[in-house]
Amino acid sequence: MKIILIGLGSIGQTILKSFAGEGHEITLIDENKELVEQLIERYDVSGVVGNGACMDIQQEAGIREADLVIALTRNDELNIFACLVAKRMGVNHTVARVRNPDYRKQIEQMKDDLGIAMIVNPERETANEIFNLINLPSVSGIERFAKGKVLLVEVIAKEGCALIGESLISLGKKLKSKVLICAVQRGDEVAIPSGRFVIQSGDRIHFTADAKNLDAFLEEARLVKSPLKNVMIVGGGKIGYYLADALSRKKYAVKLIEKNAAKADELAEILPKVTVSCGNGTQHELLVEEGIGAMDAFVALTDVDEENIIVSMFANKMHVKKAITQIENDDLLGMMDELGVDNTVSPKQVVADRIISYARALSNSIGSNVQTLYQLVNQRVEALEFSVKKAAPIYGIPLKELHIKKNCLIACIIRNNEVLIPNGNSEIRVGDNVIVVTTQKNLDDLAEVFE
Fold first, then answer.
1. How far apart are CA 162 and CA 218, in angstroms?
2. In the CATH hierarchy, which top-level class contains the domain 351-449?
3. What angle, rounded to 10 degrees, do the helices at 261-270 and 238-249 form?
4. Which of 211, 289, 343, 368 is the 20 to 30 A CA-CA neighbour of 320?
5. CA dist., res. 94 & res. 196, Å (int)
6. Are 433 and 389 in contact (CB under 8 A)?
7. What residue spans in the chain does CATH classification 3.30.70.1450 cover?
8. What does DSSP say about strands 179-186 and 189-191: parallel, antiparallel, or unpaired?
9. What is the pLDDT of residues 9-61, one digit of tens each?
10. How many CA atoms lie less than 13 Å away from 78 in the CB half-sphere?
11. What would the CATH number be for the domain defined by 230-320?
12. Each residue of 147-156: pLDDT tens digit?
């Protein structure tokens, strides 16, 4: 595909990094000449310096041949206008980043009326991600395939978990609930495990499951945690606002701490079901005074990663059941397990994953067979959903008779809306959707998984 990327902030660069090497023809547009030149050299792409909403600049970038335009500047109105210009120049698929909460109620109407294929709000998407983590206290992450029928779930094997000390073969015989463990992170190492792999305490386990069976598996594996009720949020920015609003509507008891007095007053007015306090939520005394020890969940959303990490560690020390930490700096993510920070969210990665998934689906309609893609374990593992469109020699043959490449795993097969957790006797047929988990990058067709 030919993709034009307008705006090279953290989200734009995250998306560019993911697209690099996938065979797309990518053109960058940004007003920062030095940054454009730097990224052109690093990723072997083309670039234009200028205003991405300007018709002349878009024409210089080759807009008339573009399949997809993604506008991610810091200015909502500029992103919307850039997409309108691109539509006027004949581009069918456009994506705009729109962050202003004032547009919340009209955003879907805007999308339809303006003809923008996708409008993403990083803060709202991140708040939704955190809401899901609070609503499912047993899991550290969850992604959805096949329109929600298949879940890719991350859990941590802690003391009391029935998985610890068991090989994957023994678990298959022991557990009634059928899931497939497809990736395990142990310290800095990541494994696509074989049947002899033995789960250890502290492992981060990624598994696929039929959405209908998730609760049964968590209970059987002794991973169920009691529901969370009382939630403390530190940081009253856009993410804090969206999250507090969503939680309070679902009968959670929410306490939000914001250090800016004017903003705290505004939040107290627009969030009548939320207890809003003004103060520095990174101060030990204030957190204790506000009752952190009585909280079930704690969410750190300040603008400083290091502050978020420290207060989350304190929440863990105060025996809060679930602490969730916003991290923007990718370099810090590798340290989180060592510090006992189990649940992290990155707004740029949340939005990048959504846009990449959309781009993959669009590419699928043009020629690729990848429908959905998620990146796991700090982008070291990919989970891809392939659509089996036409016959091939590898189909209709039991998986145990095929040679699957190293570090590739057939994690799930969806056939006629039925979710199949595969074993050696399973076979792939035309019409199936197949989920593959792999450490290899840039797979474009299911056939590439087999030797």
1. 10
2. alpha beta
3. 30
4. 211
5. 46
6. no
7. 138-220, 351-449
8. antiparallel
9. 999 999 998 888 777 899 999 999 999 999 999 998 999 999 999 999 999 99
10. 15
11. 3.40.50.720
12. 788 999 999 9
